[in-house]
Amino acid sequence: MKNLKFHKIVMATKRKWIPALPTIFVSIFLFLTILPLFGIQYVIMCSFLALFFRTRHLQDFRPRVLVKTGITMLLVCFFAFLATRNLALCILLNFFVPFFIAGLLTNKFNPKAYFVYGMEFVFLQLMPINSDQLPTQALCLIYGYTIVVFSLYLYSRLIKRKRHYGTVRKGMKTLSIQFKKLINNEDFQTEISSLSQMMYHMNHVIYSSRNYNYLATGYGKVNYYFMLIFQRFHYIFHNFSREELFKTDEDYAYFQTLSELFLCIEKNLNQEDNDDLIQSLNQFMEEHTLSSSKANEAMQECLSILNYALFTITLVSNERPEKDWKVPASSNPIKNIRLLFSLDRFQIRFALRLAVVLCISFAFSYGTGFNHSYWYPMSAFLMLMPYSEESTMKINNRILGTIAGLCIVFFLMGIFKSFASHLIIIIIMTCFMYAAPITSWTMTMYTTCYGMALTTLALDRKEAILLRLLYVALAAITTWLANHFLLPNTAESEFKNSVRSLFDIDIKLIRELQKWKTKEVDMDVFRNLIVHSHLIPNEIQSYINTHLTKEEQDFYSQLLPLNQKLISEMEQLNSYLRHHKELIDFTDNLLLEQLFSNLEDATKRICFSYTSNQLTSFVMPTKNLHTYGTLDDNLYFNNLAFNCIKSIEELTNLSTKAPLQELQR
């Protein structure tokens, strides 16, 4: 029993410390080199540089991105210097710089993207410099950033070599296993669940690769196509029964061969030459068919995308933006400046709140000139988070951690008073604070000890403790007021917005589909909506797991998959309309017009039902309509169209069962 307990302790220690070791090493190295080379006032750079390494070291090493980040850091450094010149610049820059940093970088899917740059801007103001020291500060930043970039390179090459398209390979293997289980009539729910998680991850990768002008890099583009492949297979296995897929022995042979082919793709996929894989896939598509014409057409459409993805992966540059995939003007804050002043947007509400808090706190610090008053804006910045609930937790943790840290400081600094002992304490606290959970009060305790070990080199211990308590309390009050009265982003309000956004996406996708007659669908808009349609359900799911009743959880567990099914159907309808125009009569096709018009009207009414206190009725296209213009009844398009109608009807029926609490929120 004792050996078992000891083993558990050892394993827990490994899980806690081993992942933190790279960041600890980089942080200590930065501290021990910046201190003698540039002086103690520049040591504060270690904090945000080490944090940048911590956030980046698990990602691929991307030189283009790192160069852009370095340039941005130098620009932020310059603005931080200007903000310390006089009170007018202090107020002006501490409002606009944090506003644009948070407003342009933060979003619901990556709410902490602002943090490193915001931390740099705040921390570099804590130790004001004169004009003669600006080159030294810039040189110190360049030195520190170079060390971080070199460390990221070493980590990617020597410690954690990441393989590109790992999720793609894993997804192909999962599908191969799913085919085999389908053949043997075994349950493959585990594979379905795994594939759903992979699709969310891939959409996050796609979204993370975008910039203000382009939707994705080459890496994101390839992930998008494979995500569509996984989404379509997911739909096929839900839409077609086993009896439809396995009518003859040839059908069994079809999936057996496809399973082996997918395993081959998983093992041999590369970025240089996939000609053999493409040839094998083309040969399979020519020699094998399913006995069900609709199922075969659905599979052929899906395999055609796979063929294109295998070809595309050899053409793109992982880091270079795809110039033909542009961010729609309606979603681009650079082209559509109104987005920066839209108070209903998550990031703008937070950006404004952050800007006001930093403007007030830095104006107080600069205007009063009180001793160590910079602790006020520093603490306020660390307490203020995008979500009010998280910010409240940070306030509590900051107060508790600060008190605990000051108690430790009072004891240790009373015993160890030499410069060397202070350095040792700083190094020890660096180790502990990067091993502690980032959201815990213990991390605040260690960071307090770290900061106070530096401060007490030049300030009396008791005075430093009293001032720290005073400014933390002042920051807590300011942050609490901002959280409650200055455009707060609560989890509940964002949950409601996410539900509305989900239906807004449905409506916008249908509107894009209605362009089938007058003009081409804007694929940039369509791709942007598809990616968002996968990211938003994850935000909803995170909320319902922790905040809703069992009845409400059951309701949304039906709503989300049903809505995702509708999204998949509209994506396939769009693909069909784009690539099979020769099969569709677009001349005065009233039934096709009626289909999309009624789908849009129905979705609007459903959205109204979910977000208001009353339900509405509407008329859907009659089920007696079996063809659209000259379309053959056996075409997969008809199957998709009527399944789309069915999904809308199911969403309508589900809306009548929505928990009363939800409709009255």
Write a concise keyword list for the protein shown above.
665 residues; mainly alpha; 26 helices; 72% helix; elongated; disordered C terminus
What does this protein structure show overall?
The chain is elongated. It is an all-alpha fold and 665 residues long. The two termini are 52 Å apart. Helix 3 (45-56) runs parallel beside helix 7, helix 21 runs parallel beside helix 23 (550-579) and helix 23 (550-579) runs antiparallel to helix 25 (636-655). Helix content is 72%, strand content 0%. The model is unreliable at 613-631 and 660-665 (pLDDT under 50). The relative contact order is 0.07.
Individual helix count: 26
In the predicted model, the low-confidence regions spanning at least 5 consecutive residues are: 613-631, 660-665
Average pLDDT, to the nearest integer?
86
What is the helix fraction of residues, given as a range?
Answer: over 70%
Shape: elongated
The Cα radius of gyration reads 29 Å
Structural class, from helix and strand content?
A: mainly alpha
- Helix and strand sequence: HHHHHHHHHHHHHHHHHHHHHHHHHH
Beta-strand content:
under 5%
Q: How many E-type strands?
A: 0
Strand count, sense and closure of the main sheet? none
N→C terminal distance:
52 Å
Oligomeric state as shown: single chain
